[in-house]
Amino acid sequence: MLVSANIIQKILSFWWFRIILFLIFLTSIFYISKNIFTQIILLLGISLLIESFRAKSSFKTFGFNFERDSLRFFLSAFLYTLLFFIIITFFDQAVNGIELFSTVDKFNLNYFLDILVLIFFLALLEELIFRGIIYQALLQRFGKYSPTLILSILFVLAHIFFNNITDTIFIINIFLANLLLSLMYLRTGSLWLPLSFHFFWNLFQALILGSPVSGFYYGIEIFQTNLHNPILLISNQEVGFESSFICTILLILTIPLVLKNFSISPFMKSIFFHRAYLESILSENNLHKSKS
């Protein structure tokens, strides 16, 4: 059993093998099940299984470390996105002369809770795919810049393919969103901040602003917002807020805030360095054996 574990660990020391293995499982999961919750559970299990065989692996190295900072990441994402979308809604209704906070008459709590869970699991699915195994494997081999650019392009292509949206501003904003989410992971060494931001960003677009999220309308808005309002600078009302210049500005302005307020701890740096060092030794040994 120990021999088998060592062999698997040596194989997984190759970054490209982890990506191929993950993509094979990912394709299989989408083929076998159309249920989003089943997909999430299987993806999370497979991701953690792959991670468990890596050198110096733990919840910390994968990004799901449970500690005091995890709560800070969650609350920071919550407060930042909440404040922004409340301000946008306030100005929209003030400019239009509409009664402030015009509540939608029919708000179904059970439906809202279902959508709340769905939005969370969709955000988790995207983070597992893009900043889970794939991004972390690319970072180990190619540094920060190339993997982030590659991942941003893949993030855009996935949204174009699955959402069938080709709006230029939307594509730019999705590209910027991936840069921001990747930066959050790099600055914290954790998936909690990008996951929390991703979740609340999508939730408050639908809940507070009443906007479609990446072109999909959930119908859970508490406030009635005029998406045709020029102040929102939305180029495509069917796509929603993510096709607006205001969204572009927000994403750009958030980058220096992340750089200023978040940084990876020396402890986490040492863990990542130690794992990369051990896996580089395993990879070199495997290469020498294959040549001899």
Q: What's the total helix number?
A: 11
First CA to last CA: what distance?
Answer: 27 Å
Oligomer: single chain
Q: What is the approximate shape?
A: globular
Describe the overall structure:
With 292 residues, the protein is mostly helical. The protein is built from eleven helices and no strands. α7 crosses α8. The longest helix has 34 residues, at 109-142.
Keyword list:
0% strand; 292 residues; single chain; 73% helix; mainly alpha
What is the topological layout?
Layout: H1 2-12, H2 15-32, H3 36-52, H4 59-62, H5 68-96, H6 109-142, H7 145-163, H8 168-188, H9 192-207, H10 245-261, H11 266-291
Helix pairs in contact: 2-3, 2-6, 3-6, 5-9, 6-7, 6-9, 7-8, 8-9, 8-10
Short description:
The protein is an all-alpha fold and 292 residues long.
